[in-house]
Automatic annotation (TrEMBL):
<dbReference type="InterPro" id="IPR009100">
    <property type="entry name" value="AcylCoA_DH/oxidase_NM_dom_sf"/>
</dbReference>
<dbReference type="InterPro" id="IPR037069">
    <property type="entry name" value="AcylCoA_DH/ox_N_sf"/>
</dbReference>
<dbReference type="GO" id="GO:0050660">
    <property type="term" value="F:flavin adenine dinucleotide binding"/>
</dbReference>
<feature type="domain" description="Acyl-CoA dehydrogenase/oxidase N-terminal">
    <location>
        <begin position="78"/>
        <end position="160"/>
    </location>
</feature>
<protein>
    <recommendedName>
        <fullName>Acyl-CoA dehydrogenase/oxidase N-terminal domain-containing protein</fullName>
    </recommendedName>
</protein>
<dbReference type="InterPro" id="IPR013786">
    <property type="entry name" value="AcylCoA_DH/ox_N"/>
</dbReference>
<dbReference type="InterPro" id="IPR046373">
    <property type="entry name" value="Acyl-CoA_Oxase/DH_mid-dom_sf"/>
</dbReference>
<dbReference type="InterPro" id="IPR052166">
    <property type="entry name" value="Diverse_Acyl-CoA_DH"/>
</dbReference>
<dbReference type="Pfam" id="PF02771">
    <property type="entry name" value="Acyl-CoA_dh_N"/>
</dbReference>
<dbReference type="GO" id="GO:0016627">
    <property type="term" value="F:oxidoreductase activity, acting on the CH-CH group of donors"/>
</dbReference>
Length: 225
């Protein structure tokens, strides 16, 4: 069985002894009360989740992979992935660095990044699922309308819903300046999307009740490139 030993002492050394990260974080709005004990406790529990829940199912991501039901067009994640995601949600991990306004815990992104380093090390395939939700959350938090934020952010924060970022198209992968998908404003405030997207990470699965797809597209007046 695959094993993972979280490098907690290394992380604590880098954060507290090398970078004095607590003093730096205290200068940021909303993090005045952060302390080393809180950070250490979060990372210790996160390490347990990575080692005890994710590492044991790492092999199934490679050996089994996802399954597509061609009749229903539904995708089933590898064995153990759905159960692990349920534990991830029940532990409150999706909310770690999210805005308290929408149910988040409001911890620094630095702490969340150290947590995700352990998740990726223990089971990178599984971590792709909740990892994409962070991108969707941040985009909506920064640019969403009040109505969009009220609808989507609490669900993404709790983990009830997951998210994706639909970027790649058949003719362009990393060179997004070549994308052709269009977004045309409609009278009711919505957009008519035309185009094709492929290879969308976490684009379909059975881990959550709903998947929020954020689509990168060009407006009619968008500049070239």
């Amino acid at each position: 069985m695959p094993q993972y030993n979280p490098p907690l002492r290394d992380m604590q050394f880098v954060m507290h002894e090398l970078l004095n990260v607590v003093d730096e974080l205290k200068m940021l709005p909303g993090h005045e009360d952060i302390d080393a004990d809180t950070i250490n406790a979060v990372l210790e529990e996160g390490g347990k989740f990575a080692a005890e829940v994710l590492a044991p199912i790492n092999l199934s991501g490679d050996a089994e992979g996802c399954t597509l039901d061609k009749a229903s067009h539904e995708v089933t994640a590898p064995k153990g992935f759905k159960e692990a995601y349920k534990q991830y949600v029940e532990g409150g991990w999706p909310a770690l660095s999210c805005d308290p306004t929408y149910g988040g815990q409001g911890l620094p992104h630095t702490v969340n990044q150290f947590f995700y380093e352990m998740l990726n090390s223990a089971n990178q395939a599984w971590t792709m699922y909740p990892g994409l939700s962070h991108g969707a959350y941040e985009a909506l938090h920064a640019h969403g309308t009040p109505e969009q934020k009220a609808l989507y952010l609490p669900k993404l924060t709790s983990g009830e819903w997951t998210g994706t970022m639909c970027l790649t198209e058949p003719h362009c992968g990393t060179d997004l300046g070549l994308l052709r998908t269009k977004a045309e404003p409609q009278a009711d405030g919505t957009y008519k999307i035309t185009g094709a997207k492929i290879f969308i990470s976490a684009g379909e699965h059975d881990l959550a009740d709903n998947i929020v797809h954020l689509v990168l597209a060009r407006l009619p007046d968008a500049p070239a490139g």
